[in-house]
Amino acid sequence: MNCEWAKANITLYVYDELADDGRYELEQHVSRCGDCASELDTVRAFRTTMSATPPVEPTPNLLAASRMRLQEALETAEPQRGWRLIDPMVWLRQMKFSPALAAVLLIFGFAGGIGTAWRLVPRAGGQLAGSGTGMAPSEASIAGIREINQVPGSGQVEIKYDTVTPQHAEGSLNDERIQQLLLFAARNNYNPGVRQNSVDLLSQKPGESNIREMLKASLLYDTNPGVRLRALESLAPYIKEDTGVRDAILQALQNDANPGVRAEAISFLQPVRADGAVRVVLQKLAAEERSDFIRQQASRMVASLPEID
Amino acid sequence: MPAEAAAVPFPGGELKRVEQARNNDAWSSRGRMATSGIRRVDDTVLIREAQAGNRGAFEELVRQYDQAVLRLAMHLTGSESDAQDIYQEAFLKAYRSVGKFRFECSFYTWLYRIVTNLCLDHLRKKQVRKEDAPVATDSEGGEYSVIDRVADDRAHSNPEHDLMRRELGSRIQSALGKLSGRERMVFELKHYQGLKLRTIGEMLNTTEETAKNTLFRATQKLRAHLAEMR
Asked: Which end of chain B is more exposed for a tag (fewer CB within 10 A), N or C?
């Protein structure tokens, strides 16, 4: 607890947005610090001043006129009904932007067609003569059909296909197989919740080089800001010892689209602010950054740097 | 105000109104954007009906939220006619896309997201036009000061006090006009509408942390502008 923290949080305190522990700490600090007590009084007075012009309530006439006008417009407006959700054009548009979904639909469509044909073939001696487990398609999802051959003169069809079967894995976080699965999930799963869980778990072992590489990739390339933020927090303790981590955090600070991630990234640079690359980035941000918060933080950190001889 | 507002009819409403006592409660709580279990249940039923194409159910939803929407738009735009335009556009948008509402947030958060986006567009255009608008226009096109109206209501018996309030009011409006659209919106929703920053973040499609930073920036700027004007 220091004055900088207190001053940054007094506004939140006055607007009842500080958590209980923060409130308690701030009250304790203010009771001992005259400057912060004075700042608290100023912010309270500011709130009172700003309340001198409360919002004007709309008059009943205005409300009635607005409702009448809306009522007229609603007569001709068309709501989007549920059927639009299954509008084939909407699906096509989604597919255009989602190659993975398009590929999956194509595979299943193809497999479905082949499956239908397979069932239509007379099943004389209807054993699956394929290799592998011989599992019927109803018991597993078909991932793709490799080859189809009709055996001449016999009415038999030979189909080679791959299946996807649900699997279950359980084990300790130290288990290499579990780690491999988590690394795979962190890189490839389309569900950001799964990616975040994977990053959460892997971040317990950021000391291992392959995990740290994955965390860096998640920080720089994951599309979900929550995942990037988690990866950033896991990497932060290594910012001093690992220049790769430092570079990744610098990149996130400069390029991340999410202001929250950038704000976190700059806060982690404090211990390495004297590093040449960090210094250059901070100076650039202090001079050119458009976000007030980042610019001010960068300026503050640059000002606290020792002069270079 | 709640009782007056409840008395304003919505022409052509098809659903029966709930009993008066509960209705009055609803208006007062809606006015402050508070939520309760009963309201949420009511909303869910009404939303599902509206999604199935029942316009009466949608109008009932409008009645629950429109006073707060109009008040927010009036305070942000300083103009009754601009506020009416935002009101109209917001509820038409909500009507057209109510089928897409997935109950992932509360209805008022979803609705306010539409309203705040429209208000932000309006503020951006206003900043481009460099309009300072402590002067507002009413629905008949006449000009009046929003601040004057507040002062008149409060200080009939004390002209000196009234004058001071007017001066302070125009200083506040001028300072508010210098904030960016987003800062203005966060400050408006927090200070004047009393919403939680978490909810404001949801409405503005951003994080609670960003909303906190924006509120801090907005208050710092306002304090600086007000101090300059002394």
From this structure: C
